[in-house]
Write a structure and sequence with these properties.
By secondary structure, the protein is of the alpha+beta class. About 20% of the residues lie in helices and about 25% in strands. It has 2 helices and 4 strands; from the N terminus they run βαβββα.
C-alpha cells in the first residue's frame, strides 16, 4: 500500500492501519529511515488457485506536508530567479 500523508503523523497513521488490518505492523529492516512497515498474513486459497497461503503486505507512507517542503533544494539558485 502506498499512502500520501497530507497531514498528521506517520506513527498515528500506522496505528490506524494496524487497527484496520487487525495485525501488528513491523519496521522493514532494510528501510528503517523510511515510513515503511510490513504485516504478515495467512489466507484460505480457493480451489484451483495458486496463491501462496502466507503473504506479506508492505505499507509505505509518503509525507506531503508543507512543514517538510523545502523546494529551494530542488532547484539551482539562478533557475528560480531566471524564470520570474
Amino acid at each position: 500500500m502506498l499512502g500520501y500523508l497530507l497531514k498528521g503523523m506517520p506513527e498515528i497513521a500506522f496505528k490506524n492501519i494496524a487497527l484496520a488490518v487487525a495485525r501488528d505492523l513491523s519496521d522493514h529492516p532494510d528501510f528503517s529511515e523510511r515510513n515503511h512497515k510490513t504485516s504478515d498474513h495467512d489466507r484460505t486459497v480457493p480451489t484451483g488457485k495458486k496463491y501462496p497461503v502466507k503473504f506479506r503486505c508492505h505499507y509505505l507512507l509518503l509525507q506531503l506536508t508543507k512543514q517538510n517542503a523545502d523546494y529551494s533544494r530542488c532547484f539551482p539558485d539562478n533557475l528560480l530567479e531566471d524564470s520570474i
